[in-house]
Structures are given as structure tokens and as C-alpha cells.
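Researcher: Sequence recovery benchmark, item below. Answer with residues only.
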């Protein structure tokens, strides 16, 4: 078991580069399975979730090399083997294998990736999409089976829920369906857009990228890709920006698309954090002025405030003078980290599974705390950066799943953070 030891109180300063997006890399790697040809994908973050996915793909017959963030992958044949449940459950995103395996083999059987600490993670909208494309879907308590012996047929689909991985699965399936498909209420997060660009590079015909209505013309053959570069991780960029702001630091965050985080910058203005935005960077600047609370931090689908930045931003609000309201609309299990934050001295009030108040300002105190999930883990590190004394953070395997070189990046900005084994 590994831990972080953080000694708080240092203002971050310097420049840092954002890595490739986890949530784009995972569906893009899965999409590479659509073709027998070689795909070269750059800017893949070297994180645990990517290694777990590659392990599953090796089991299914893919051959690859992964060095210096470049993945070269080729799947000449997809073996019709049942992926062991232990592997599937390690990675929620293994659900993204449904479409590529279905398209290559006309059938797929996968055990449920399971729920997780965020609360229930239903997949009904994925399955609805497959049925609308003409597939036969069978569900048991243990697995999902999808068959399309005669291939899939395009349809006009209104997604029952705006789901990121649901949209990604149905986009991939629609690309290989005969005729035209319209996907309404499609998710449009930067990672969904990046998957669409990769698919178009493979020969797909997707229009409306970045909107909630996608028009897709099916194709029968997908080709390899000479060089696709994964979009920068806007969630990592946001996490670093919040880390800089909470320490009243002076940090330039590079290699990013600031436009993906418009709503975060609005909230920075509301709080009173000075910053400057460039074409592919943002500069967070120090101030001695008091931070103000936010009237309502409501998570929404893109381009709304990302649920994945809710916990990090809530930690920042513990330093604002007044009461801020959090409204988590996507997941009912995403406020649990507030109990850890209270151990550090934060004053919070959980009103119901989706709403909480943060009453600031509070001087956070270093104590032993745990990461509840990937983003809550990052939030605990952010809290530790301003806490008095030493914070020991456990369950950091969650953080390793999705942030590349997290502690190295923070250390390069002057944070006192180290990893140790129990
Ligand atoms: N939903 C349904 N039915 C479905 C699918 C989703 O009701 O069939 C509901 C969910 O219960 C939730 C909402 O729709 O209330 C959104 O869930 P979504 O399906 O969009 O989540 P996901 O695709 O499982 C992805 C990211 C998550 C991120 C969410 C929301 C990946 C691999 N995961 O999950 O990322 O929080 O979208 O943006 O892209 C993370 O990176 O830490 C992470 C958890």
C-alpha cells in the first residue's frame, strides 16, 4: 500500500505541462480494435487505467508497444474469449470494449464493470442504443451479451440519458452500422469529441462533433491511423489550476485547451482568483485579497461545470469567506469526500446525497485521510497543500489510475509531497 505525505503551506510557482486525457485515451485505444491495421496514438497518459486496458487487449489478441506516451497497437484478430471478471471490474471503462468486439466478431459477452464509489453506474442507455441499431441484447445477473449476426442498421436514436461512455459506445457502433444514424442527446465532452476525430481518421463519417446531435454514415472498413494525438486532459488542467489558486500560487499551465474549461474560469472570477488565459495556456496569479464563496456550484454535462472537478473546487471553497452551495447533479455518491475534509477541520453540511454547503474560511489541519475515488483523491492532495502540518493520504492507487506523474508535477511547482510504502 502506498501513501502520500504532504507538508502544506507552500505557494506553488512555475510552469507545468498537462498530459493527455485519460477519458479520451481509453475510448480511443478501444476504437483501435475496429481495424486490423496498425494505429499509432500519441500523448497517451502513462497511468494505471491505460495499463489495465492494454492488459485486457493483450488478452484479446492485440499487439502493442507503449513508450514515451506513444502507443503503437494492432489487433489482427479479436479472440472470442471471455474476459475474466477480475480484469473487467478493475476498469469501469472496460464497458467501452462492447462496440469494437461486437463489430469485429458480431457478438460480445462481457461481465458488468460494476458500480463504484460514485454510486450506481447504470448502462441502460448503452443497451437501448444497441437495440435501436438492431442488435439482440441479453442481460443476466452476471453479464451482458450482444449479438448482431447480420450486422447493425442505422437508426434515429434519442439517448435516454446523456451518458459519456454510452454516447461513445453508440457512436462506435453507428460508425459500423449500415446506412445513416442520428444520435440525439449525445454527450459532447472534449474526450467524446476526440474519439470522433480518431474515428474519422480511421475512415468513419461523423458530423456534428461537439454538439448534442451527431449524424453518422456507416462504413464497412476502418483503416489504421499513422498519428493521432490525444487531446490534453482538461480535468488535469483544472485540478492544477485549483491547486495553484488554493496556495495563492503563481503558475502557468501549458499544453492545454483553456476553452474546454470556460465554466471553471467563470467560477474563478466569482471567487476572485486572478488569471490570464492564452491560446493553449492559463496563468493563475497570486492575490492577497479574500476569496469569495460561490452562490451555487452545480455540476452539469459539458460545457457545464464538470462533476470530475466538483471535489477539487469544493476544497478551494473551504478557503472562501462565506457559505458556498454544492449541487452534484450527476452522481449521488460524490460527496463522501466531505467526511475526510471535515477530519481536516473543514465546516461542511451535507443536505442530501446531491447537495452540500461549505462554510468558509477554515484553516485546514494535516491529519491522516483517505482518497475515496480518483477525483476525491486529487481533492485531498489539494486540501493537504494548504493544510497546516503534515497530511498522510492513503488509497492513492485511485490517484494513480488517472493522473500522470501527479506528485512529480506538484513537486516541480514547489509542493512538499512524497510517496512512501507502508
Ligand atoms: N446514466 C444513466 N444510464 C446510463 C448511463 C448513465 O442513467 O445508461 C446516468 C448516470 O447514473 C449518471 C449520468 O448518467 O448520473 C452520467 O453518467 P455517464 O454515463 O456519463 O458516466 P460514465 O460514462 O460512466 C464518464 C467518465 C467519468 C465522468 C462521467 C461524467 C469515462 C471513462 N468516465 O463516466 O469519469 O465522471 O463520465 O462526466 O469517461 C473520472 O474520470 O474520474 C470519472 C469518473
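Model:
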Amino acid at each position: 500500500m502506498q501513501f502520500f505525505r504532504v507538508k502544506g503551506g507552500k505557494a506553488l510557482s512555475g510552469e507545468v505541462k498537462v498530459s493527455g486525457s485519460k477519458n479520451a485515451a481509453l475510448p480511443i485505444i478501444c476504437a483501435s480494435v475496429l481495424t486490423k491495421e496498425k494505429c499509432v496514438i500519441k500523448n497517451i497518459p502513462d497511468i494505471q487505467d491505460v495499463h489495465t486496458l492494454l492488459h485486457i487487449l493483450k488478452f484479446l489478441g492485440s499487439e502493442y508497444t507503449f513508450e514515451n506516451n506513444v502507443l503503437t497497437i494492432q489487433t489482427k484478430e479479436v479472440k472470442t474469449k471471455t474476459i475474466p471478471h477480475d480484469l473487467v471490474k478493475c476498469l469501469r471503462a472496460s464497458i467501452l470494449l462492447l462496440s469494437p468486439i461486437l463489430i469485429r466478431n458480431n457478438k460480445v459477452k462481457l461481465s458488468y464493470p460494476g458500480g463504484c464509489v460514485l454510486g450506481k453506474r447504470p448502462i441502460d442507455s448503452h443497451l437501448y442504443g444497441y437495440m435501436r441499431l438492431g442488435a439482440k441484447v441479453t442481460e443476466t445477473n452476471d453479464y451482458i451479451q450482444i449479438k448482431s449476426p447480420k450486422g447493425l442498421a442505422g437508426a434515429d436514436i434519442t439517448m435516454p440519458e446523456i451518458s459519456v461512455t454510452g454516447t461513445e459506445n453508440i457512436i462506435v457502433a453507428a460508425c459500423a452500422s449500415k446506412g445513416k444514424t442520428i444520435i440525439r442527446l449525445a454527450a459532447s465532452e472534449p474526450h467524446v469529441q476526440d474519439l470522433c476525430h480518431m474515428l474519422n481518421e480511421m475512415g468513419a463519417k461523423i458530423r456534428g462533433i461537439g454538439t448534442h446531435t451527431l449524424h453518422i454514415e456507416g462504413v464497412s472498413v476502418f483503416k489504421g491511423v499513422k498519428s493521432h494525438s490525444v487531446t490534453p486532459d482538461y480535468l488535469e488542467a483544472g485540478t492544477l489550476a485549483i491547486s495553484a489558486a488554493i496556495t495563492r500560487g503563481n503558475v502557468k499551465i501549458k499544453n492545454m485547451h483553456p476553452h474546454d474549461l470556460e465554466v471553471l474560469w467563470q467560477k474563478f472570477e466569482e471567487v476572485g482568483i486572478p488569471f490570464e488565459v492564452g491560446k493553449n495556456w492559463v496563468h493563475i496569479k497570486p492575490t492577497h485579497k479574500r476569496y469569495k464563496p460561490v452562490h451555487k456550484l452545480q455540476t452539469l454535462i459539458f460545457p457545464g461545470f464538470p462533476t470530475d472537478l466538483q471535489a477539487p473546487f469544493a476544497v478551494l471553497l473551504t478557503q472562501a469567506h462565506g457559505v458556498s452551495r454544492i449541487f452534484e447533479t450527476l452522481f449521488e455518491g460524490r460527496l463522501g469526500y466531505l467526511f475526510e475534509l471535515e477530519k481536516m477541520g473543514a465546516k461542511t453540511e451535507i443536505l442530501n446525497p446531491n447537495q452540500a454547503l461549505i462554510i468558509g474560511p477554515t484553516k485546514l489541519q494535516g491529519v491522516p485521510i483517505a482518497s475515496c475515488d480518483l477525483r476525491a483523491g486529487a481533492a485531498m492532495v489539494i486540501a493537504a497543500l494548504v493544510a497546516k502540518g503534515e497530511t498522510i493520504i492513503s488509497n492513492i492507487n485511485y490517484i494513480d489510475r488517472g493522473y500522470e506523474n501527479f506528485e512529480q508535477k506538484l513537486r516541480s511547482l514547489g509542493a512538499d509531497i512524497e510517496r512512501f510504502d507502508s
